[in-house]
């Protein structure tokens, strides 16, 4: 698939839940968030249908996101079913790593190829401050488990305020280098104000070569993170929703007031 700006669209990010076991300060307000109704969340068979149609249309890269994808009940079964879809060349997941020690081996056996793990600091007190409730030791155990299970390359996603030279970011980079991992630095974004920059060490934020669509956990195909447009797979059907999203994919991001990072997966 190609959009109107001759960008090849071959990447689908799939949010499987809006729920998360952390409360990161840049993702959720202190009072928490109103979660989607259970009936609004796509069932696994609906997610699989969207992915199958997307692959038929030329998508070959799938990433599972959330919320936190590992809190979705039955996630291993979904991974196993997705891995059987012929045409997927790159199958990954973004996770905060808290539950990865328990799931890494099962994810690998089910067919997941690799993981991106969120890690904004290596200071336990700072980690608790950023996530409000998180335990850094669990993430570090999750990283080790991912490496041991062969979910590689393991990439670390580190949110920064203004520079990869910030102390927390430097520590994450040194940790990644020592462990043979890849570090990606993501500037803190603001959806409503339209504030974003290209990811350092990754592809996100490079509008001129953006190749992605997003499926929200309640069934909207979003052509751009910084756009209010969304096309319902339940109302239009998977194929038409995908084609509409590609047809209306903007040249670059602007702003969005219809979703938040916790329910679209960044």
Keywords:
single chain; 266 residues; alpha/beta; TIM Barrel; nine-stranded mixed beta sheet; 8 helices; 9 strands; globular
Describe this structure in words.
The longest helix has 14 residues, at 136-149. It is built from 8 helices and 9 strands. It has a 9-stranded mixed beta sheet with strand order 6-5-4-3-2-1-7-8-9. Helix 2 (75-83) runs parallel beside helix 3 and helix 3 runs parallel beside helix 5. It has 266 residues and is α/β, with parallel strands linked by helices. It is globular and about 45 Å long. Helix 3 links the parallel strand 3 and strand 4. The protein has a single domain, classed as TIM Barrel (Alpha-Beta Barrel), CATH 3.20.20.70.
In short:
31% of the residues lie in helices and 16% in strands. The chain has 266 residues and is α/β, with parallel strands linked by helices.
Poorly predicted segments: none
Query: Which class of secondary structure composition applies to the elements?
Result: alpha/beta
From the alpha carbons, calculate the radius of gyration and give it in angstroms.
Answer: 17 Å
CATH architecture: Alpha-Beta Barrel
Taking the sheet with the most strands, its summary is: 9 strands, mixed
How much is the average pLDDT? Answer: 95
Number of domains: 1
Strand order of the largest sheet: 6-5-4-3-2-1-7-8-9
Q: How large is the share of residues in beta strands?
A: 15-25%
Number of helices: 8
In CATH terms, the superfamily is Aldolase class I
CATH class: Alpha Beta
Q: What's the total number of strands?
A: 9
- The helix-strand sequence is EHEHEHEHHEHEEEEHH
Choose one word for the global shape.
globular
Quote the CATH topology.
Answer: TIM Barrel
Q: Termini separation (Å)?
A: 22 Å
Helix content estimate: 25-40%
